[in-house]
């Protein structure tokens, strides 16, 4: 069974269609980069996958959970196994790093304290912040805060990770440290879907790239092939600056 399957996904805001019949399959261990111009529906699709947006037609199955107008309890079960990291870090400023990371395992999974402490050490090591458990968000750089946000999602031991433009608010140096952390997760076999404008990262790290245009999957395929031999003028124009 694929880690993620989307079939015939349509999403509109009022009379304005945003997603127009999206089909996509992500297998376990895949790293899928989703690229495209602003307004092509990339982030809306991610939010549908995680149950944050309702949709009008189609079916999504992710980590064994079917989303078809799912009720709140089903969405809670879904989000235990599907992590999502946003452009904004959404850390609680009054909680230190360890407490930010363990909040969901404590409240949602009822994990005891000793086990939570072990989780903190493990997930912070995975994002290169093993010495920051006691720090507060305002003591960290933007890149460090975003890596804590990634660690917080990892603490729930998700089967699939979704990343929505997680570096778009960071300067180039901080972007690099976050992308290194994501690349290491990819190398370790984490299944992930990333909406990104980092073309070099998509080309080198993603096993597959999906180019969205006008609310549709315009092209998709192995990343190197897609960047080297775009089949449509729209994709060729979009990736041209990254090939210079």
Distance between the termini: 39 Å
- Biggest sheet statistics: 6 strands, mixed
State which percent range the strand residues make up. Answer: 25-35%
| Spatial order of strands in the largest sheet | 6-7-8-3-9-10
Low-confidence stretches: none
Assembly type of the chains comes to single chain
Helix-strand string: EEEHEEHEHHHEHEHEEHH
- CA-based gyration radius: 18 Å
Mean pLDDT: 91
Total beta-strand segments: 10
Report helical residue fraction.
25-40%
What is the global morphology?
globular
Would you tell me the structural class of the helices and strands? alpha/beta
**Count of DSSP helices?**
9
Question: Concise description?
Answer:
This protein has 244 residues and is α/β, with parallel strands linked by helices. It is built from nine helices and ten strands.
Q: Which keywords apply here?
A:
single chain, about 240 residues, alpha/beta, six-stranded mixed β-sheet, four-stranded antiparallel β-sheet, 10 strands, globular
Provide structural commentary.
The chain is an alpha/beta fold. It has helices at residues 42-49, 72-81, 97-107, 113-126, 142-154, 172-187, 199-205, 223-228, 233-239; strands at 4-13, 16-26, 31-35, 57-62, 65-67, 82-85, 160-164, 191-195, 208-213, 216-222. A six-stranded mixed beta sheet has the order 6-7-8-3-9-10, with helices on both faces. β4 (57-62) and β5 form a beta hairpin. α3 packs across α4 and α5 runs parallel beside α6 (172-187). It is globular and about 55 Å long. It starts with a strand and ends in a 5-residue tail after the last helix.
